């Protein structure tokens, strides 16, 4: 919404949230999330045509277009627990819009939702004694964290799903007009609502599938002395496959991939498509396997015991350039290492505060240290979890000098110079390459 405000000074954008602390942070000099380039965009538009407020009712009443971006986590209870999307926040929002709107509105689904949610929302919005016309559009977001601003400025595509009715098409055109302020028309794709909702789930499922595919091959490379980076390069040069998203890793994290795939799996099962559901569920299973495999590799290479050993995790965020730790492989890996009775030291340039919350039940068993040199000092092993560029430039001779010997490095992102580390004296274990 900040970027829309920034690019379209003619529109007034009001962001409302029930959480007053969060809104206060959006109105302050320290934004509640770390995202490169976001500060500048917010500062340029805030107070001009971008406003942050807790007055939700006023936000609804005073706007013609309402983007709903409430969270839709995986259900933790009842039917579909662990798989289906929990739509309670979305539904409450729809009811609130219906109850306090006093003029026609266009409602835009921004949250990722299962197919046919828009239909349900349309019914809620028009149930009972409603006075206004509501048009529901689907406009899924494809930005990735860490590159959000450039993804928004130069999107591969903007997708807008609408009903094929005159009202639906008119609403769709209004939304197209907003994006057309900076996105070329050819990149603005319009479809039916269901295609749009489904495309979001499928895009994430395909992206995650690419990572799970290369991660599964990394396990085979370790057994056969092939090098997964060389395989990925050779495979990715086929333009039908493409060279992106082929970096073998400790596994994918983030708030979206797992949730969206499980959602897709649930939908397939609901429609009796068990084979299709099993196929996509495999992507999540390989991801869990990859995280666990990383821990088992550490254990077996460190003489089958981690008890009392001190291990430093370099990075905790689910990817570089964000402080977000949701579904980060670091969470599973930390828990498993503590289970093996290792002593953990966590370091990350942006994510330590979130890490503390994620692992608060393990207080006293983990140290959190900002400086990577201080964090790795006295450790038996380092495990690279997040691909922060800064880690490449660390002085590993100095680090080696301060560590307990034999010193181990497990590079879960293949970002370091493994040959050089080996020459320094480290026992080096990359992903998908011979040790
Ligand atoms: C992902 C999608 O890339 C976005 O298009 C989508 O809009 C977003 O989910 C969403 O649904 O909101 P995001 O989760 O922010 O974006 O980050 P990604 O860059 O996709 O990375 C996801 C995970 O995959 C990270 O843990 C990353 O380290 C890992 N990854 C990525 C790999 O392990 N290997 C790769 O080659 C690429």
UniProtKB/TrEMBL annotation:
Q: Where is the active site?
A: 256 (nucleophile)
Give the protein family: Belongs to the UDP-glucose/GDP-mannose dehydrogenase family.
GO BP annotations of the record are:
glycosaminoglycan biosynthetic process; UDP-glucuronate biosynthetic process
Report the protein's function: Catalyzes the conversion of UDP-glucose into UDP-glucuronate, one of the precursors of teichuronic acid.
Q: Which UniProt keywords apply?
A: NAD, Oxidoreductase
In this entry, which stretches build a coiled coil?
none
Q: Which domain of life is it from?
A: Bacteria
Which residues of this UniProt protein bind NAD(+)? 17, 22, 70-74, 111-112, 145, 256-259, 326
Question: What name does the UniProt record give this protein?
Answer: UDP-glucose 6-dehydrogenase
Q: Which NCBIfam families match?
A: NDP-sugDHase
Q: Which InterPro entries match?
A: 6-PGluconate_DH-like_C_sf, NAD(P)-bd_dom_sf, UDP-Glc/GDP-Man, UDP-Glc/GDP-Man_DH_C, UDP-Glc/GDP-Man_DH_C_sf, UDP-Glc/GDP-Man_DH_dimer, UDP-Glc/GDP-Man_DH_N, UDPglc_DH_euk
Residue ranges of domain UDP-glucose/GDP-mannose dehydrogenase C-terminal in the record = 312-418
**Gene Ontology MF: a single term:** NAD binding
Species assigned in the record: Desulfonema ishimotonii
Q: EC?
A: 1.1.1.22
Q: Which reaction does it catalyse?
A: UDP-alpha-D-glucose + 2 NAD(+) + H2O = UDP-alpha-D-glucuronate + 2 NADH + 3 H(+)
Q: In which pathway does it act?
A: Nucleotide-sugar biosynthesis; UDP-alpha-D-glucuronate biosynthesis; UDP-alpha-D-glucuronate from UDP-alpha-D-glucose: step 1/1
